[in-house]
Amino acid sequence: MINFIEELRWRGMIHDMIPGTEEQLLKEQTSAYLGIDPTADSLHIGHLVGVMMLRHLQLAGHRPIALIGGATGMIGDPSLKSAERNLLDEETLRHNQECIKKQLSKFLDFDSDAPNAAVLVNNYDWMKDYTFLGFIRDIGKLITVNYMMAKDSVKKRLNGENSAGMSFTEFSYQLLQGYDYLYLYRNYGVRLQMGGSDQWGNITTGTELIRRTEGGEAFALVCPLITKADGGKFGKTESGNVWLDPARTSPYAFYQFWLNVNDTDAARYIKIFTTLTKEEIAVLEAQQAEAPHLRPLQKRLAEEITILVHGRENYEAAVAASGILFGQGTKEQLQTLDEATLLAVFEGVPQFEISQDKLASGIKVIDLLTEEAAVFPSKGELRKLITAGGLSVNKEKVASPEDIFSAEQLIAGRYLLVQRGKKSYYLIIAK
């Protein structure tokens, strides 16, 4: 059996753990769980540290349990970090759960007959019929307010700048999470809960509940919260979260996110977000030190995680799309791009609109790029560039100002890509 703790340790994925955790995992196959918030029908890359912990756990021979926090989803996010409360009905909750399971299936084996096949559970299933009176009678009496007040997460909230204080819901959240651990300990034999370092207080409340009710021993392991080298929040871009759902974040944009991380972050992330071995990563680090401009760490990181989430075909399409932007690529590759990828690749380039009718019977390029779409201020300038071989449409050189373009040449039925020189692009949209 692989030493799971040692695996996480060299990858920089351990912030703290209860003494005895490593010994427990070396002693026997262990069931461990990690909670996931179901407020959306897709995971984003902020979830991936926890998901990778579950993946490494399974690869080490242990049983991962992914817990969907449906009960907390039903009452809204208690963190008060946002004014907007995401209240879910059961239908939405179940939809989100199925979507999340589908994404998790790319990282975890749920379907095999192996004794460590992954399990998905939802705390809504055991909380929905639990009455408030029943809960405070059975669980509330076991943990003192003094114990709950001593948690750093509570003290920070009460002593912080937020004068609004802390709601009862938020205060009781650690009891709810603690009960999850107790339930899974009793019904699934779970001995370990994992999470981010901000969850330490909630997780250890669970171990205390187990000790007081069952006289049992349970363990906790938390990973550091991932940040960027510049101190910024990991997983956020100007447009928001980087999602695993291709409808929310295209495979191209997903690939680009990882490709564009800086060298320091790439060296950390490749350990956390891939299953590459220590030896494989050492080779890549040596290549990076020798030729940092080639970005071998970033390229391999982007390759591994994009293939895992979106499959090899989408990864290769993302690589091809990246090449198109930087002057490589062919007409054939361009024609294979779907609309979402095309728009992602050429986000921010100047756009012009033209009616489909104008293209129906064909239009000369000299008229198209001066009168219909003002890519050029004059026909003389356009002729000069064509003569110099500096104008391309859809990655093909324009040979003559008289060349005709029609609806047949549209990419994805709507677009013409115009390239002036090496780096200037324009997108003509037929409507």
Question: Can you put this structure into words, describing what you see?
Answer:
Helix 3 links the parallel strand 2 and strand 3. The chain has three domains: 220 residues, 3-Layer(aba) Sandwich (Rossmann fold), CATH 3.40.50; 110 residues, Tyrosyl-Transfer RNA Synthetase, CATH 1.10.240.10; 80 residues, Structural Genomics Hypothetical 15.5 Kd Protein In mrcA-pckA Intergenic Region, Chain A (Roll). Helix 15 crosses helix 16. The strands form four sheets. A six-stranded mixed β-sheet has the order 1-6-5-2-3-4, with helices on both faces. Helices cover 47% and strands 14% of the residues. It is built from 21 helices and 15 strands. About 2% of the residues have low confidence.
Q: Helix coverage percent of residues?
A: 40-55%
Shape: elongated
CATH class descriptor of the largest domain: Alpha Beta
* Largest sheet features: 6 strands, mixed
CATH architecture annotation of the largest domain: 3-Layer(aba) Sandwich
Low-confidence stretches: 77-85
- Radius of gyration based on Cα positions: 27 Å
CATH superfamily of the largest domain: HUPs
Strand arrangement, major sheet: 1-6-5-2-3-4
Can you give the mean pLDDT? 90
Helix/strand/pairing category:
alpha/beta
Tell me the total number of β-strands.
Answer: 15
Number of self-contained structural domains? 3
- CATH third-level topology of the largest domain: Rossmann fold
